[in-house]
Structures are given as structure tokens and as C-alpha cells.
């Protein structure tokens, strides 16, 4: 594997980790919120993240490399903090949404950074489509925050 392809694999594997963090963070959030609509939005976001990860893993495999299959340590700590916040303020759906929104914003920054890199057009189109989907869910989560829906 040449250096360019190695960098591409590294980049895609990083997005896999980001996607796993998003999936697991949204699943944690869905478990913590009381409002059924919020739970549905977070579960849908988690499913979208899972599908994105699967698609990215297939791209890494097609490049002849081993795809990652877990998130980051930072994501693990973020989810633990979300669970602690639920214990401290068990009926605060807005706090859970704020943490989910923060994680989604971090993921969007990572995707924007990746989209600035040079890569084959077929891979760029996958990353762009995933970014646009992520943007849509981020906007839904943001709109739900502060609505006192709990």
C-alpha cells in the first residue's frame, strides 16, 4: 500500500471511529431521554451512523486494509459523562440533547476536515452524502433543544 492510499485508509478509519462514537452516543442518549419523539430522533440518528460506519468499513476493505470497528476513548468518556449527567439530573432531556448535539458538532467538524483533503471522487461523494445526512440530523436535534419537551 503506497503512502497516499495509507493516508486515505487512515482518514476513513478515523471517520469510522467518529461514526461509532456518534452511534453509541445517540443510543446512550435515546436510553436516557424520557420524551418518545426525542428517543425516536436519537435512535434514527444512531441507525444512520451505523449505516455510515458500515459503508466506510466496506471502502476500507476495498482498499485492501482492515477497517476499525470501535469508537474513540474520547467518545467513551463522553458517553460515561452523559450517563453521570442523567444520574445528577434524571429528568433533563435538554441536557442529554445538549451533549448529543455537542458530539454531533464534533463529528461534523471531522467530516468537514476530511472533505478538504484530496481523495478519489467516488469516496468523496460517499463522505459528502454522509456529511449532509449528519447535518440534517444535527438540525433536528438542535431544533428539539430548549423546547421543554420533557
Structure description:
By secondary structure, the protein is mainly alpha-helical. The chain has helices spanning about 5-30, 35-60, 75-90, 95-115, 120-145. The model has no long low-confidence stretch (mean pLDDT about 85).
| Alpha carbon gap, first and last residue | 52 Å
H-E string: HHHHH
Overall mean pLDDT score? 84
The low-confidence runs, each spanning 5 or more residues with pLDDT under 50, are none
The name CATH uses for the topology is Ferritin
The geometry reads as elongated
The largest pleated sheet is described as: none
Portion in helices: over 70%
Radius of gyration, in Å, reads 16 Å
How many distinct helices? Answer: 5
CATH class: Mainly Alpha
The named CATH superfamily: Ferritin, core subunit, four-helix bundle
- Name given to the CATH architecture: Up-down Bundle
Helix- and strand-based class? Answer: mainly alpha
The number of distinct β-strands equals: 0
What is the topology?
Blueprint: H1 3-32, H2 36-62, H3 73-88, H4 93-115, H5 121-144
Helix pairs in contact: 1-2, 1-3, 1-4, 2-5, 3-4, 4-5
Entry keywords:
150 residues; Ferritin; elongated
What's a concise summary of this model?
It is built from 5 helices and no strands.
